[in-house]
Each structure stands twice: as C-alpha cells, then as structure tokens.
C-alpha cells in the first residue's frame, strides 16, 4: 500500500494552471473584505477548484498505461557527425493530452535542452526528431525518457518514466562514408590535369596473350600458345592492381589539440576510416599502424570484407598519449611489417621546423623504401588571429608571432619536398577530403 501511495505521490506534479487558479481564489477572499456582495463566491470557487483537481487526478490515474514512449537510435554513433535520434509517443487515453517530453541524453553532451512539448489526440502517435553530435569516442549512456502528461483540465501532470536506458558506442566517423565512395568511383580527376594512363608492366598480374610485335620482351613468349597458333605469341602483364595502403597515426601529445570539439587524433582517425574505405573500393589493401612512445596496434593490409570493421574496432579504443612519438621504432616496425613498396600515409603534427628536423632522418629512411605522404595540420586559430587587424602594440606582437608559425608550416612543406617526401598541409575540417584527393591523384598517376 505504501509503495502505491509513494508511486502516486512521486509522479504527481502541480501545473502552473493550478497555482493561477489558487491565486484567483485567494484574491476573491481578499476582495470579500471590501465587497460584501461577493458572499459565498470565494468558497464556491475553491470548492469547484477542489472538485476539478480530484477529477483531474482521477482521469489521469485510472489508466495505468496512458501513454507509451520509445527511443529509436542506431546501434552505434558516428564521431563528429550529426546522429539522428527519434522518440515515438503514443496516447492510449480516451481524450487529447498535452505532453512534455524530456530525454536524458548522455552526460558527455552536457545538454539540458532536449525538452519537447506536443499535443496528442486520443489514440494518436507522434514522433520527435533531433540530432546529437558526439566529439569523443567511447560509451555513451542514455537515461530515461520522462513524459509529463496533462489532461484538458490541466491542473496537474502525471509523470511516466520509460526505461530507454541504453549504452551506445561512439565509433570513428562512418555516416559520411557514402560520399567518399562517390569520389572513389568518379572519373573527374582529369579536370585538374591528372590523366590516368594504362601502362604495361612486369608484375605478376596476367593481362592477356597477344601476337608478338617488334619490341616485345622475348622473355614473355608463350611457347605453348606459339605452337598452337603457328606464330609467336607473348604474355602481357599489367601493373599490380592491389597495392598496400598503410595509415600511420601519431598518438603523441601534439595530436591532443582540439578544433571544433574534436582532437587532431579524432580527425586523423576519421580520415583513416574514410581512406581505408576508398582504398578497398579501388581494390587496394588497407592497413593500419598506431604510434606513440612505442608502437601501438598493427593491422596488416588486407582487402577482405571485414577489414574496415576490424580497423574501426581497433581505432575505437585509441587515445592520445602525453609522451613524444618514437620515430625510430616506427621505421623499424615499417621495415619488419611492410614487405613490399607501399603507400604510407602518416598523420602527425609538427608545430615548429625544429620538431620536423629532429624526425626528418627517419622520414627520409621510410621514403627510401615506400611512397611516404606526411599529413599535418594548419592551426586555424593562428590563421584567424593573423587575419585580424592590429589595434595596439600587443596585438601587433601576437599577429607577428602567428604569421611566423604559419610561415614555418609552409617551410616544412618545402623541406619535405626537398627530400622527395610528399606532404599534405590541411585544416582539420578538410583533412578527409584532401587526403582522399591526394590518394586518388597518386592512383591516377600510377605512382602506387
């Protein structure tokens, strides 16, 4: 009995309309002292209000399942993207209701604005749609769906607590992978002066048997086909279509810098997932190496269907470290893991030319055996600071320092190019697009 009473008590809330009605009754009692002709009107008003209150409680509580609410989400959320959330509310009362829905979103969002008001007719169903944009990978714990229901009388509200509690993992960005698939299958790179050339190679991938013409390599003569045709026939081979594409992600403290809520590591992880997807669509093999003060996870390059899921599962748990990365260990790992010439896309960040010069010997050694692309970031905050007009001596000093760091980034690109190392200097927001464009350009030029 006590449990039932507590249930009624804890889920009953007084509305503003009730307090306004009580205030009106109090006003009538005050006016009665000055206007005797009011007579019993204040007592009648308070009696009517009490009857309405009891009627409101009765019609709201007589139906145990007055409403039903459910939350619909995907099985996992995409980091850095707008993820759709839907709440469906159904009215089982025999009258129309006013509903206030509060969704308890995970604490990581620090949001208290998921508060919705709507009106439902009897047996009506309505949906609420909104988006959430996570900025960190990990587990996100959704709480209850709180529904506050009022009858047409509107003096009180009955609260329904729907157990929508669920834990959803936030994985590296996967919602926008479809648009990168379109980039992979498009043939618009010729608009930028990049021409795809089909060339004959000497790799192990067989192309066709054709008649011998002057200049063909006699080592490729197919003697069996020659005996059948009565003329010289040669085998032709094409360049190997499946190349190894390795993404190397730096997890040192330089990748902790945040831009628009996401750290540089998260931007690099999202770009790695997209690049791996595009590479496998191009029939290449995608692999992964993570680096901090030691070598982290190593995923051998494959193009099997489950490879992308395996890469996402590995990247889901990666976090930045506080120590500087060990480039010497990276070189040793690449030499032992990657057995053939491959495209190595290295996501890192250098804030000064001296930081680059410390690691340049190891980058030069890697580029000796593989096609190395170093991807690092523009500091958008410094760029915006340098574009602001200087108003005093202090702002001139800040503007000059910002321009110095921006110029150093450009010097890093020239320094890398001097040793034949490709580089991509990009803003975090355009990282994925620029990296995929660089890969497609290299692919079209048949440099890999």
Describe the structure.
The chain has helices at 2-10, 16-32, 41-61, 177-185, 223-229, 264-281, 307-316, 327-337, 353-369, 380-387, 393-418, 431-444, and strands spanning 12-14, 67-72, 77-78, 83-91, 97-103, 115-120, 125-132, 138-142, 145-150, 156-162, 166-171, 200-201, 205-211, 233-238, 244-250, 258-259, 262-263, 285-291, 295-302, 343-347, 371-377, 422-426. The protein has 3 domains: 1-171, Immunoglobulins (Immunoglobulin-like), CATH 2.60.40; 177-195 and 241-444, von Willebrand factor, type A domain (Rossmann fold, 3-Layer(aba) Sandwich), CATH 3.40.50; 203-238, no CATH class. The protein has 448 residues and is of the alpha+beta class. Strands 19-18-15-20-21-22 form a 6-stranded mixed beta sheet, sandwiched between helices. A 5-stranded antiparallel beta sheet has the order 1-10-9-5-6. A 3-stranded antiparallel beta sheet has the order 2-4-7, with no helix packed on it. A hairpin with a 2-residue loop joins strand 16 (258-259) and strand 17 (262-263). Helix 2 runs antiparallel to helix 3, helix 4 crosses helix 6 (264-281) and helix 6 (264-281) runs parallel beside helix 12.
Give the count of helical stretches: 12
Give the uncertain stretches in residue-range form.
187-203
Give me the CATH architecture of the largest domain, please: 3-Layer(aba) Sandwich
Highest CATH level, the class of the largest domain: Alpha Beta
* CATH superfamily annotation of the largest domain: von Willebrand factor, type A domain
- Assess the beta-strand content as a share of residues: 25-35%
Distance between the termini: 76 Å
Q: Sheet bearing the most strands, described? A: 6 strands, mixed
Going by helix content, strand content and strand pairing, the class is: alpha+beta
Average pLDDT, rounded to a whole number, is 85
Integer-rounded radius of gyration: 34 Å
| Number of strand elements | 22
**How many domains, in number, for the residues?**
3
Strand order of the largest sheet: 19-18-15-20-21-22
User: Which of globular, elongated, flat, extended, rod-shaped describes the shape?
Assistant: elongated
Question: What fold name stands as the CATH topology of the largest domain?
Answer: Rossmann fold
Helical fraction equals 25-40%
């Amino acid at each position: 009995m006590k449990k039932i009473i507590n249930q009624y008590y804890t889920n009953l809330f007084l509305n503003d309309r009730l307090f306004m009605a009580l205030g009106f009754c109090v006003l009538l009692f005050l006016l009665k002292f000055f206007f005797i002709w009011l007579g019993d009107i204040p007592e009648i008003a308070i009696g009517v209000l009490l009857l309405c209150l009891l009627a409101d409680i009765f019609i709201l509580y007589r139906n145990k399942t007055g409403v039903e609410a459910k939350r619909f989400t995907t099985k996992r959320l995409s980091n850095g993207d707008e993820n759709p959330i839907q709440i469906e509310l159904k009215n089982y009362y025999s009258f129309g209701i006013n509903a206030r829905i509060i969704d308890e979103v995970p604490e990581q969002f620090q949001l208290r604005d998921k508060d919705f008001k709507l009106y439902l007719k009897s047996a009506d169903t309505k949906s609420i749609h909104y988006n959430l944009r996570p900025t960190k990978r990990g587990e996100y714990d959704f709480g209850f769906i709180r529904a506050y229901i009022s009858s047409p009388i509107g003096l009180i509200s009955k609260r329904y607590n729907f157990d929508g509690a669920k834990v959803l993992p936030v994985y590296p960005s996967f919602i926008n992978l479809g648009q990168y698939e379109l980039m992979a299958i498009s043939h618009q790179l010729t608009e930028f002066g990049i021409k795809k050339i089909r060339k004959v190679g000497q790799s192990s991938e067989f192309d066709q048997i054709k008649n011998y013409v002057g200049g063909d390599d006699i080592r490729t003569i197919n003697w069996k086909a020659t005996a059948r045709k009565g003329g010289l026939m040669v085998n032709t081979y094409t360049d190997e279509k499946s190349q190894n594409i390795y993404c190397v992600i730096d997890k040192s403290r330089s990748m902790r810098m945040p831009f628009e809520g996401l750290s540089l590591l998260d931007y690099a992880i999202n770009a790695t997932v997209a690049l791996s997807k595009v590479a496998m669509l191009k029939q290449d093999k995608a692999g992964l190496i993570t680096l901090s003060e030691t070598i982290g996870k190593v995923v051998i390059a494959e193009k099997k269907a489950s490879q992308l899921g395996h890469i996402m599962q590995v990247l889901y748990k990666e976090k930045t470290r506080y120590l500087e990365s060990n480039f010497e260990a990276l070189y040793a790992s690449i030499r032992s893991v990657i057995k053939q010439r491959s495209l190595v896309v290295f996501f890192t960040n250098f804030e000064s030319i001296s930081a680059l010069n410390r690691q340049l010997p190891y980058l030069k050694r890697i580029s000796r055996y593989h096609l190395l692309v170093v991807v690092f970031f523009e500091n958008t905050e410094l760029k915006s600071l340098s574009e602001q007009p200087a108003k005093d001596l202090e702002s001139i000093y800040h503007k000059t320092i910002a321009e110095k760091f921006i110029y150093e980034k450009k010097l890093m690109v020239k320094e890398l190019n001097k040793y034949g190392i490709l580089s991509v200097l990009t803003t975090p927001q355009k990282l994925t697009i620029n990296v995929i464009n660089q890969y497609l350009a290299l692919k079209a030029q048949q440099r890999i």
